Amino acid sequence: MITVAQLKGKRVAVMGLGRSGIATAKALLASGAGVMAWDDNEGARRAAAEEAIPIADLAGLDLSRADLLVWSPGIPHTFPKPHPIAEKARAAGLRMVCDVELLGWAKPDNRVLAITGTNGKSTTTTLLAHVLAANAVAVAAGGNLGTAALDLPDLPGDGRYVLELSSYQLELIDSLQVSAGALLNVSPDHLGRHGGMDGYIAAKRRLFDLLVPGGAAVIGTDDGPGRAMSAQLMAMGLRVVPISVRKVLDNGVSAPEGILRDNGRPVCDLRDIPTLPGSHNWQNACAVYALARADGLAPKAIAAALASYPGLAHRQERVAEIGGVVWINDSKATNADAVEKALVCYDAIHWIIGGQAKEGGIASLERHFPRIRHAYLIGEAADAFARTLEGKVDFTRCGDLASAVAAAHARASAGEVVLLSPACASWDQFKSFEHRGQTFRELVEALA
């Protein structure tokens, strides 16, 4: 746990009591702050009360008497409709931040390396932490990934915090000092929460407003928004490191065909690393290389650490091989763009897909449908996905994950792959994508 000395004796409201909200409330109490915590969900309030967190309905309080409001990024505060407490806080002139901002207040002497983007954030975050740790750097990784910001270990001053930052979090951070930051890619996602694509891009762009003087802006330039942002920041005089997996960059880090290059010079062959398959992972490795170089590591040391990466749970995670059929857990692929990264890696796929649909559906994946031997539809999106697949891919409506696993086990043959890559959020049937992936893993292990 990390405490925030600046908030001792202050009155702090906490809105949202999920993983980060609970961690924040506990850290604030340990810091000597007066805490007023609320969640619209009765079960969440009850769980927080059992942790001795003071519960108070913020809707009925005079928020002008509070010193700060720590807002859970998952709760809408602008689009599509602001939560009433967010409107009340703004009317009272109350500052709203998320827990990551508090980490910056608490640990101003530590370097922060931050990653955002539509896809690849979690792999890049864990891979960077692995590279640093392999080179004897004290490091902790979290934020949007895994451990909440104030639940991270209290590192010494020379330690590094590697943070995955979502667009939701970036909207609620204004003074975190970032030594180097990466924007991996931008494709449509969460548009309802940002009022459209322009708002979504602007939220991602906020990362580079947090850079310390001389800090590195690592930007994926294989999509239009990334190229535009790179050009804009270069024109402003910022230190920009472009990355690409489509072409060799003479000034930047690139990996077309899987050969990682630094300013055009070969560094290592990423194709030899089984835990980093596909061009999307080569992009992640380029970002990690650029961030680690900005942090002072030598090219050979980075390359050696990349080669020992064990992989990320729920992202093309090889669960088992049963009767010659390989089972892959890609539960973290919650949109079509993320799913595409997995589909291009395999040729004979039994695809488990569905859940709570997100923007765009799966129509953009049609060019990869010839790779699909059969699709198994689950969750709320089953009917919509069936309409997209009709006449193009054979499919079965399975309803739930257990039925889909059983059906795929009965149909798949040696040399084929069963891929859970849902293109959907998990909340219709699971607590999180991690819960969905763990359930898949347990079902497959039971088959084995």
Describe the structure.
- The structure is a single chain.
- The chain has 448 residues and is of the alpha/beta class.
- It folds into three domains: 5-97, NAD(P)-binding Rossmann-like Domain (Rossmann fold, 3-Layer(aba) Sandwich), CATH 3.40.50.720; 100-307, Mur-like, catalytic domain (UDP-N-acetylmuramoyl-L-alanine:D-glutamate ligase, 3-Layer(aba) Sandwich); 317-447, Mur ligase, C-terminal domain (Protein-Tyrosine Phosphatase, Chain A, Alpha-Beta Complex), CATH 3.90.190.20.
- Helices cover 33% and strands 23% of the residues.
- Strands 6-7-5-8-9-10-11-12-13 form a nine-stranded mixed β-sheet, with helices on both faces. A six-stranded mixed β-sheet has the order 14-15-20-16-18-19, sandwiched between helices. Strands 2-1-3-4 form a four-stranded parallel β-sheet.
- Helix 9 links the parallel strand 9 (211-220) and strand 10 (239-244).
- Helix 5 packs across helix 10 and helix 14 (401-411) crosses helix 15 (433-447).
- The longest helix has 17 residues, at 278-294.
- The protein is globular, with a radius of gyration of 22 Å.
Main sheet record: 9 strands, mixed
What is the CATH-assigned architecture of the largest domain? 3-Layer(aba) Sandwich
Number of strands: 21
Helix fraction, binned, reads 25-40%
Span between N and C termini? 39 Å
Task: Report the sheet-strand fraction.
Answer: 15-25%
Number of DSSP helical runs? 15
Q: How many individual domains?
A: 3
* Contiguous runs where pLDDT drops below 50 for at least 5 residues: none
State mean pLDDT (0 to 100 scale). 96
With strands numbered from the N-terminus, the spatial order across the biggest sheet is 6-7-5-8-9-10-11-12-13
At the fourth level of CATH, the homologous superfamily of the largest domain is Mur-like, catalytic domain
Rg over CA atoms, rounded to whole Å, is 22 Å
> Would you tell me which CATH topology of the largest domain applies?
UDP-N-acetylmuramoyl-L-alanine:D-glutamate ligase
Q: Structural class, judged by helices and strands? A: alpha/beta
- CATH class of the largest domain, anyone? Alpha Beta
In one word, what is the shape? globular
